[in-house]
Amino acid sequence: MEVSFREEIASLRLGEGETFRGEGILAVTKALLQSGVSYVGGYQGAPVSHLMDVLLQSEDLLQELGVHLQTCTGEAAAAAMLGASVVYPMRGAVTWKAIVGTNVAADALSNLSSPGVIGGALIVVGEDYGEGASVAQERSHAFALKSSLILLDPRPDLPTIVRMVEQGFALSEASNTPAMLELRIRACHVFGSFVAKDNRRAPVSFRNPAVPARFDYGRLAHPPVTFPQEADKVSRRLPAARRYILEHGLNETLGPTEGELGIIVQGGLFNALNAELAAMGLSDAFGRLCIPTLVLNVTHPLVPEQIAGFCAGKRGVLVLEEGAPDYIEQAIAQILRKADLNTPLHGKDFLPLAGEYAPPVIAAGLAQFLDRYGQRFVAISSLAPAAAGAAKAAIGASLPPRAPTFCTGCPERPVFSAMKLLRQETGPVHVAADIGCHAFATFAPFHQGNTILGYGMSLASAAAVAGTNQRRPIAVMGDGGFWHNGLNTGVAGAVFNRDDAVLVVMDNGYSSATGLQDIPSSREASGEGRGKAVPVERAIKGVGATWVRTVHTYDVRGVLRTLKDALSDPVKGLKVIVARGECMLARQKRLRPAQAKAIAAGTRVVQSRFGVDPEVCTGDHACIRLNGCPSLTLKPSGDLLKDDPVAHVNNDCVGCGLCGEVAHAAQLCPSFYRLDVIRNPGWLDIWRLRVGNWLLRLLGGTPITEAPPLRPPAAVPVPAE
Amino acid sequence: MSAASDDRSAERPEGLNQPRTTMRQPTRILIAALGGEGGGVLVDWITRAAIEAGLHATRTSIPGVAQRTGATTYYVEVMPAAPGDPVPVLGLNAAPGRVDVFLGTELLEAARRAEAGFLTRDRTLAIVAHRRAYTVTEKSEGGDGRLDESRLAQAVRETAREALIADYEALARQTGAALNALMLGALAASNAVPIPPDAFRAAIRAGKAADSNLRGFEAGLAGAPEPAQPPAPRAGTGPDDLPEEARALAAEGVKRLTDFQDAALAGHYLATLRRFAALPGADGALVAALARHLALRLSSEDVIRVAQLKLRDARRPRLAAEAKARPGDIVHVVEFMKPGPAEVLSLLPPSLARRALRFVERRGWMEKSIALNVSPTRPLGFLRLRLLAALRGWRPRTLKHAEEQAWIAEWLALVERALRLGAPLAREVAESARLVKGYAATDARTRQAWRRIMDAVLLPALDGRLPPDLAADALLQARLAAQKDPEGDALDRTLAAIAARIASSPQRLAAE
Question: Which of A341, B140, B287, B501 has the greatest count of CB atoms below 10 A from its CB?
Fold first, then answer.
């Protein structure tokens, strides 16, 4: 990847007393190094990709510290990696996106947590919940409960986040329990500062290798020791964790020590709570609360005596807990019941059962709670509802959604153009969609996809459709999902079971949707330079598939033909189409600077872009409905008679060629043209143009460019775009 | 910063005594951008400038799917700092009704925030770029699916305390800077945040492309131009025996048809318009609609016309500008033409063309077509287009012409019959010609949709099975449905609903 993290890398080197400034996820990365980790691993996914991306470019620093870095092929691999801490006193951290990643990791997590760890193990999960989330809305909390993990949910300010990372390792070691640190999207991206400490070298690392562990059956998650391990979790590790949490003040009691009312809040929600209390006159911008508040930076396990102590003697306590089910509220209710306390407990009675706790939601819940107990507060008389009404009236129409779409020039778009043409020609086909950029095809203008069951799961999700449907289903999968698990769960399974389905693998060379990380099929010379250039086809054939065709995605007619072949082939069985085309984002990042440099150096470069003739375009926009490229847009026709806007290609065009391909494949119209600009033409170009222009004039035409003199003056530099 | 001076004990509800509270409020800034527009850079400049200026600052983002043109939001809080301040607890979420500054890089997204209550009369300064990035929904319609820009801007103006809606993009183009630098300049000029311009400059200098972004920043700081007003509709100069609304269109139509074919065709056009203008009940709007659509249909694009347009002199400067060619560069143009058998054979005289088409159809060759990537900047490509364009005089003898004439005759006859039932219905029939457009497959699809609508709505009206006013409305609804989602089933559903209405109780409908 060409994205450079120079500044971020420098901030990872800060020493004792220096001020770190940056985003939450980078602060976590620094905190890992301050905690003396031996190894770090993970699988990319927003909002935590950054952690791995930055470390990948910090090779020197990791060398110095002896930290082993592993870009795992999936979250299961990342979780399994924590196995090192089961038998060695090594601190290790892994990261992934929740809830999906935790689901994938679940098997390893159970078997990690059963024997427990002797070196601190920390799992940093990006809790992809609420606005901007891209996954099913579930809580990581359930995993902490079922596998007896520690769950940290720090207040979203950098000093607290860093402290919870450091304390997380210590707590993990004190209780021999793996810990999970959950960071919501906003917390991952929150910008702030903290006072750094020196990075620490781990006692065991590749600089100081460990002696292989002696055989100890007790460390295996294997019967019969799994039974004592289960007991150990609750009889020894859990109390140890609670003791540590209490003794080190991981949860914070803020506001006045005495008060009739109280609030218990997940650490991650604290800033949102404070903003609403401040608006009600019950706090300020420094978090000086007027109501006793227990901030749970550790949301599992709860410490019963801390909860009971906080609630005792209060007229009412409100629990602010985001998402469903209300695990924390249930646990608190049980604690109170067992402590024989009858403090009234509120939470999901005043606040919604599901969904993000955005400011208005918290405000409404708080107001109900305070009202119930006659607590006076400044009612927030918001002008927002009236403003919303006024805006609605002014607009006078419903606003169309703005879903993300394929980038300009994306190599995956043409495949869906072909699939839409296929649908228009032959009627509906069951399409099993997957996770990745190609899932944008579920939005306008393609509207493709009947199910999404998980990353790399599309083919597996079509297993029962194949054979029970009038037509062969088509499963779409990215190369990211393919290597993540699609090769095994999908291809191998379908071949083994003789599934009669079509699989389209988008071979764009990267795990693009998560930020252009390399995968096994990435070319060695591009991207991060870590690819092994393993052809996708070879892997597919390796598990026994025989009908495998490779198409170049921009060849819409070719893709369409191959799709038709795959659907109509008389022989039953899996048909795999590898749709190849490099991720345009990566391609442009590489090509643009190189081209600008070449042009400035006087080298011959041909640049292309597309255009639409407004006089020829009739304004039907069928091209847009088959394409959806951001650079293919509308403009006024400039013709008094044609009052509908015409199609227009804006300056973002990268010349991928899809416009022309679609115009041909769908027999659309002759409005499109391509401009080929030869920068720094060679003598052959110039002579050809001279002869051409002479003939053109003879035929009564006017050349668009005059032939330059054979020896062009020194190259005119153009600024890099 | 003398911010500590406002640090005083707040008025508090009774019963609570918490010492040392502050009335200091953060300035809350919400930014709405689209992926790939540099919203992240903008918010980074603001944060860094705030820190440079000695303020407390925090920011966070919901980058959405950055780079991929989805909506992205960024949120910043900055607050004056005083010595000895504890760590502030700044917010991570924008709250409706509690946004002091709103920065929007696009009108629809700005209106969307207004509709969600983030802009309020009491506090919000809205700085919005007067520009549109159309959503796929808007772009996809067969007609004009664009939202009304002025209403989007109005939504911002009506809800903000102060709205600065300017064409920052034009200014960005002039200065060669990115839009976000302009917006930052506008923010600095507004004095809405306690950050001096120099702190912003320092933040820009610390980043990439500092020179051009500083230029953009200074331009934004100096003030932005009002958005360009759409040109006022041209005065109705033209044949003055036509109603005023139709004159400019008719004049344009005459010009177009003379260029397309000859003066005779233009004369025929004017004569047709005059004939309709003289019919009892015909109003200006009807003649205007006819002036527009008759001109377009009479000059409906064929291969000859396309070749003619591709050879236009006026096209060259536009292409040269798009190519951004420097002196010494060579530009070539490649046209993507792919006439199918129907388009090529329809250049033959009707009887011959029909026979040839039947033959091709029997052979199953209708789908076959030759992809012609013609380059008019090269002699051979130029010659091919030139020869095609030279067929202009032959055109009236072609099948394509004959078919187009037949369609126009049918359409005009329907307009005339509809006019007997009232001008509104006639106007809708005239407007229905708007549906027919495009080439090849599109042309066929749109004609089919037109015929379906005429059969399902207009014929029942002409038969007296559907009252004229209802029919006019139904025609409009059907036309909108056909354009909304041309390959989808919107038209099917609309026609089914209309059919149900006709079938349910004709008597009741007639009585309405």
Answer: B287
**Tokens read off for B378:** 């090269």
| B89 → closest Cβ in A286, A390, A672 | A286
Strand A68-71 and strand A39-42: pairing?
A: parallel
Tokens 């993300």, located at residue: A404
* Residue B352: burial class (beta carbons within 10 Å; 0-12, 13-18, 19+): exposed
CA atoms of A550 and A538, how far apart (whole Å): 11
- Domain final position from B222, B255, B277: B222
**Are B40 and B113 in the same domain?**
yes
Is position B288 within any domain? no
Within-domain flag for B262: no
Q: Does residue B409 share a domain with residue B340? A: no
Nearest to A395 among B61, B85, B115 (CB): B115
Q: How many domains does chain B have?
A: 3
All residues of chain B having their beta carbon less than 8 Å from the beta carbon of residue A187 are 60, 92
pLDDT of residue A531: 85
CATH number at residue B79: 3.40.920.10
Substitution target from A618, A697, A721 for chain B, most B beta carbons within 10 A: A618
Q: How far is B145 from chain A (nearest CA, A)?
A: 9
Mutate to test the interface with B, among A5, A128, A189 (most CBs of B within 10 A): A189
Tell me if the bond preceding A301 is cis, omega within 30° of 0.
Answer: yes
In a domain, residue B461? The reply is yes
Task: Quote the mean pLDDT of chain B.
Answer: 89
- CA distance, residue B139 to nearest chain A CA (Å): 7
Indicate whether B388 and B421 sit together in one domain.
no
Would strands B55-62 and B71-80 be described as parallel, antiparallel, or unpaired?
antiparallel
In this structure, are B379 and B495 located in the same domain?
no
**Residue in B with minimal Cα distance to A702:** B313
Tell me the residue range of the domain where B363 lies. Answer: 303-397
Token pair for B92:
């991570």
Residues of B in Cβ contact (< 8 Å) with A710: none
Q: Does the pLDDT of residue B1 top 80, yes or no?
A: no
Question: Based on the domain organization, do B330 and B444 belong to the same domain?
Answer: no
Strands A316-320 and B27-34: unpaired
Domain identity same for B197 and B336: no
pLDDT along chain A (721 residues), means of 10: 70 96 96 98 92 91 96 96 98 96 97 98 95 91 97 97 98 98 95 96 94 96 97 98 98 96 98 96 95 98 98 98 97 98 98 96 97 90 91 95 91 97 94 96 94 97 96 97 96 97 96 89 82 94 97 96 97 97 92 93 94 94 93 94 94 92 86 94 93 93 85 50 40
Query: Are A285 and B35 a contacting pair at CB < 8 A?
Result: no
DSSP A212: P
* B436 and B359 part of one domain: no
Tell me, what's the pLDDT at B504?
78
Residue B120: partners with Cβ closer than 8 Å, 6 or more residues away: A382, A383, A384, A387, B96, B97, B99, B159, B160, B161
Query: pTM of the prediction?
Result: 0.93
3 state SS of B90: coil
More confident site: B98 or B325: B98
In chain B, which residue's Cα lies nearest the Cα of A129?
Answer: B62
Q: Which residue in this structure is represented by tokens 């993000």?
A: A356
B210 with B358, same domain?
Answer: no
**Cβ neighbours for A155, distance < 8 A, ≥ 6 positions apart:** A161, A252, A267, A268, A270, A271, A295, A297
* Eight-class DSSP state of A249: T
Chain A nearest-CA residue for B255: A641
Considering only CB atoms, B92 lies closest to which of A271, A640, A703, namely: A271
Minimum-distance CB partner of B337 among A406, A659, A670: A670
b/e A417-431 (16+ beta carbons within 10 angstroms → b): bbbbbbbeeeeebbb
Instruction: Specify if B286 maps to a domain.
Output: no
